Amino acid sequence: MLLLLISSSSLLPLAFSSLTGLAQIRSSAKFRAPSWKQIKEAVSFLNNVVGLLTNLLSPRQPQPSNITQLGRISSTSNALTRLNVPFYTVDVGIGSPPQPTTLLLDVALDFVWTQCRTCTLCFKQPSPNFDPSKSKTYSKIPCKDNLCPQAPSPSCPADCLYDVEYDTDLWTRGVMATETFALGSASFPNLAFGCGTNNSGFNGIASGVMGLGRGSLSLTSQLKVSKFSHCFVSYYDNTSVVSSPFMIGDSISLSPSALSTPFVKNPTMYPFSSFYYLSLTAVTVGTTLVPMPSTVTEVNYVADTGGLVIDATTPFTYLDDPAYKAVRQAFVSQIKLPLTAAPDGFDLCFALSPNVESVEVPDVVFHFQGADMALPPKNVFIADRADGLLCLMMGNSTGISVLGNFQLQNMHVLYDLGKQALSFEPAQCSMSYKTHAWPLSYVLLCVCVCACFTFVNAWSA
Asked: Signal peptide location in the record (predicted)?
């Protein structure tokens, strides 16, 4: 059992070992950690508005075989920023001269887009709308170009158009184009992206999406690099100045103690073709080893169901219902606290007495093929003394399981597309890093990023 200390503040801080192999640089961005109330509101927002990744998985009508299914084209970053809603965003420059743009980091899908000033239906965003008329390098993609059929749901009444619907209240439609992107200290011309002119649902979160999935329009595919990594700053980090790295490039590596698990083969149909699947074989909760059923360990390539995917935009880890129920029961049987009603968006919560200073919770280990991911308490639970709650940051799903970003806090995660493997190791992601001047062919981007918190429509400073 691990001892989970309840701090005087709303959320509990825990220490991690430092990330090795990277030099440091100072950052001056300030932020405030999210309150328990904001976490609850954020989870409710995600469940009821965004709908999480699992809402994208309803059956789609088959598309013509000559159309590459929707991904999210990638844009990149000067800064990886964390929102009070559990999203991570990156700041990029688009155009010549570069216009600052904030994009939602997405490792599940492979399409990059941003809202443009020419939008007829627009949402509020943290940075000014990208204005194509002010860029010398903006160019619409012709219908006859080979890139046009690769766009999400392409059509060509005159220009090459795309159409992405994430949920009933969350979509983007617009024009396919190419543009120069400023990524870190470097610029890269002729990257394909979507210039959104009819958009809904991202109010205050970001200007668009940066996709790093497995499709042909992802940033990694367009830049022809084999590796990228992220290190998500903790939800609980209460320091005044933090930085968190996001890197793309062939020479990224972790320490010798890092563990690796292979990616699982994808289904061929969108959106599944863009995901990074992993083989989760079991979950240990304290003294209980819970084997995962075939609906979690295996992908059904006929029905496009099953398996587990890693997703940076989803806060919770979701397990297929039978697997989740078994894991849930293991927590209930070992945590010596009374159950209590869970807030909207949560499933399992325990009651904390007003004066509690600490509580024992089970050790948790995710057993992947060839690698065990040990999770500290702060990557499993949210504890709030004011509301008297200890809540599990996991839930149930149907058809597919998801490894969410809450479980990846203070974890340096490397996606090796050449070796088709995911590597990881504990890290202190709030430490500062220095951008390295490696040759372009080796590392395209090593971003020093400042973590800040916002809540939906309001930036916290």
From this structure: 1-17
